[in-house]
Amino acid sequence: MSQEQPSPPSADSSLDGSDQFAVRQSKLDHLRESGNDPYRSNWDQSHTSREALDLLPEDLEEGPEVSVAGRIVAFRLMGKASFLKIIDRDGKIQSYVRKDEIGDDEYAAFKKLDLGDFVGIRGPLFRTRTGEITIRAKEYRLVSKALRPLPEKWHGLTDNEQIYRQRYLDLIVNDDSRERFRARSRVIREIREFFWSRDFLEVETPMLQAVSGGAAARPFETHFNALDCDFSLRIALELHLKRLLVGGFDRVFEVGRVFRNEGLSRRHNPEFTMLEAYQAYTDFRGMMELTQSLIQQVAERALGTLQMEREDGEAIDLSGTWKEAKYKDLILGAVGRDDWFDLPKSAKLEKTKELGIEVDPELEDFEITNDVFEKIIEHTLIQPTFVTHIPRELCPLAKITEDDESTIDVFELCINGQEIAPAYSEQNDPFVQREAFMKQVGEETQELDDDFLLALEHGMPPAGGMGLGIDRLVIFLTKASNIRDTILFPTLRPA
Q: Where would a tag sit more exposed on the chain, N or C end, judged by fewer CB atoms within 10 A?
């Protein structure tokens, strides 16, 4: 039985879902009536599938006895001998079950198993004539009965709605999906290992906040009954992490969930995972080295390569020193005018029409320019590029550039046509910070966090800060087509 070849399921596969449920329920009732427990409390598992397969090198035909457990995903019933495959956390392994090995009664019960059932199997390893490592079963046990069938085509789901709503089925039958979430776990582990190796302290900050700050985004709001006051789910990690800089924790990071009550798209989910890190006595250029080193180390250790391939076949090279480009230079190159930043708003709007992009005429000048960046430039930045010195209006939390007061000491790292990570030289002047906050509060894009300003007045060291969207990083590293493919349980409208 080839590992790649799907096998016929059990005899009830021609029935629809409700009929299969009834058939399986009948089998369950019969098991209980005969004194067998179809939902055992445990099974003595000695090896995972991968560990068992590794016990039989290519030069041997037989190996030691193992005890494995998992879900049946393939079944080939024959007269006096049968094959089945189970899947566990490490992958799939085949088993060979003979009537004369386990006995008539046990074999008769074995033939009543269904795809999706969990079983434990014990026996020695051997290699079949086709070369596949297999367990010769001496003993098997049904440890958990599945009442509902796996999807008809057990080798893959194609209905996105079912994939996202019933992720457990997706993980059972889609190898690519299962490996993507394994990769996500490795990415997060390596992120933590990187920061620990640089003496950063991992911390946790509150998700429920009285004031939503750190980003210009709409929060989810709730009411805290015990205190009889309103709270918001956090939209960023930044302001509480900076309070820790004030408190003397010079290097801090957090991997945490963030919530923004905004739209859904291929790149946006209202609940997502952020990494934010802050380091005292450095600036945005220190963060540039940190961010590049972080992503290179994560890619190499979690995926084993610094060469990523896009769907169109183009290679993205994460090695070496990454490109750096000023925001203003990119804008001037895209619009083909050296006087862009001196033009009146009307002329900028006229130019955007020539460029073929739709821009809301009610936008401020800097927002029109940023539309040009997002709609014309960003998607062309395939190779890693640090876009530096963005307009100061786009972020009130960064240091203003000394030789150009219209920009701030910021970079936005773009890879594969999208922003992956922004970083700043953090603003630590409480008067400049208050002025910037007051301007945004007046524009209703951010709430005023007086407590954070109070903390700044106690003195915050110069620092660099960086944020990285982990979901977007996983999209890039695993070639996912949609952010929902990187989140185990993405936000959906209730069924």
A: C
Residue 69 contacts residue 86 (beta carbons within 8 Å)? yes
Q: What does the H/E/C string look like for 139-156?
A: EEEEEECCCCCCCCCCCC
Nearest to 117 by CA among 85, 163, 92, 79: 85
Structural domain tally of the chain?
A: 2
Pairing of strands 221-224, 229-233: antiparallel
Q: What is the pTM of this model?
A: 0.90
How wide is the angle at C-alpha 453 spanned by C-alphas 450 and 458, nearest 5°? Answer: 130
**Domain assignment of residue 166, yes or no:** no
Spatial CB neighbours of 53, under 8 Å, sequence gap ≥ 6: 91, 93, 133
Burial class (CB in 10 A: 0-12, 13-18, 19+), 400: middle
Distances (CA, A) of 123 to 81, 82, 107, 450: 15, 15, 15, 67
Q: Quote the tokens at residue 251.
A: 């290097």
Q: Of 137, 149, 87, which is closest to residue 113 (Cα–Cα)?
A: 149
Q: What is the dihedral of CA 280, 284, 288, 290, to 10 degrees?
A: 10
Side-chain-side CA neighbours of residue 360 (13 Å):
7
Q: What is the mean pLDDT of each run of 10 residues along the chain (495 residues)?
A: 42 63 94 93 96 93 96 91 96 96 93 96 96 96 95 64 90 92 97 98 96 88 94 95 98 97 89 97 98 98 94 91 97 95 95 94 94 96 97 92 95 95 96 88 66 96 97 94 93 88
Q: Are residues 140 and 200 in the same domain?
A: no
Domain that holds residue 257: 172-322+383-486
Per DSSP, the residues of 71-101 read: EEEEEE--SSEEEEEEEETTEEEEEEEEHHH
Asked, for residue 161, whether it belongs to a domain, the answer is: no
Nearest to 222 by CA among 236, 211, 235, 233: 233
Which amino acid belongs to residue 72? I
Q: For residues 195-226, b (16+ Cβ closer than 10 Å) or e, as one string? A: beeeebeeeebeeebebbbbbbbebeeeeeee
Separation of alpha carbons 113 and 119, rounded Å: 9
Scanning 198-260, the segments in alpha helix (DSSP H) are 238-246
Instruction: Return d(Cα 262, Cα 253) in angstroms, integer.
Output: 25
* Residues 286, 402 within the same domain: yes
For residue 65, is it within any domain?
A: yes
Give the torsion through C-alpha atoms of 240, 241, 242, 247, to 10 deg: 90
**What is d(CA 280, CA 460) in angstroms, rounded to the nearest whole number?**
9
37 with 135, same domain: the answer is yes
CA angle 89, 92, 94 (to 5 degrees): 140
